[in-house]
């Protein structure tokens, strides 16, 4: 499945992919054509969804947790053990940290792929509005004629 999909509705209250009534479609144009085939006349809302991505924690958080755990394990003798800082007087560590942070994130992504749990779900990233059918002015004229 594509990395991006579109769904449409003529009700704006929709918030999640499961609540959008029509779709998924590969393009906005396909949504408009489908709405036209449904004889919709008026504004439609097209939800743009992207495949959800895994947001892996920074290595810094893991290292900090190790510092805290060590303090809990051995007491205050470990309070000065600082493996997570990469700023200020520890700025010389930043290139080393960056290298291992990239490798750590890749390790997590490789693990997720190997166990077959890559996300197959989507998150809403945008909403596009389109007019379908007769133009608004024409629509009002037809309604007046019908009275």
Structure, explained:
The chain is α+β, with helices and mostly antiparallel strands and 147 residues long. It has four helices and four strands. Strands 2-1-3-4 form a four-stranded antiparallel sheet, with helices on one face. The two termini are 48 Å apart. 11% of the residues are buried.
Would you kindly provide a brief summary of this structure?
With 147 residues, the protein is of the alpha+beta class.
List the helices and strands and how they pair.
Blueprint: E1 4-9, E2 22-25, H1 28-37, E3 42-51, H2 59-74, H3 94-114, E4 122-132, H4 136-146
Antiparallel strand pairs: 1-2, 1-3, 3-4
Determine the mean pLDDT.
Answer: 86
Radius of gyration: 26 Å
Task: Please estimate the helix content.
Answer: 25-40%
The strand count comes to: 4
How much of the polypeptide forms β-strand, as a percent range?
Answer: 15-25%
Distance between the termini: 48 Å
Tally of DSSP helical segments = 4
Give the helices and strands as they follow along the chain. EEHEHHEH
Overall outline: elongated
Q: Tell me about the biggest sheet? A: 4 strands, antiparallel
Within the largest sheet, what's the order of strands?
2-1-3-4
Class computed from helices, strands and strand pairing? alpha+beta
Low-pLDDT sequence parts: none
């Amino acid at each position: 499945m594509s990395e991006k999909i579109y769904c449409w509705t003529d009700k704006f209250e929709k918030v999640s992919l499961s609540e959008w009534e029509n779709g998924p479609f590969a393009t906005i144009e396909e949504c408009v054509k489908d709405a036209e085939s449904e004889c919709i006349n008026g504004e439609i809302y097209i939800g743009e969804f992207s495949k959800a991505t895994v947001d892996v924690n920074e290595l810094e958080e893991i290292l900090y947790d190790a510092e805290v755990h060590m303090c809990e394990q051995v007491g205050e003798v470990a309070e000065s053990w600082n493996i997570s800082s990469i700023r200020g007087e520890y700025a010389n560590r930043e290139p080393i940290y960056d290298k291992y942070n990239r490798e750590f994130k890749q390790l997590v992504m490789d693990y997720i792929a190997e166990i077959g749990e890559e996300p197959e779900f989507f998150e809403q990233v945008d909403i596009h509005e389109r007019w379908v059918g007769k133009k608004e002015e024409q629509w009002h004229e037809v309604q007046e004629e019908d009275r």
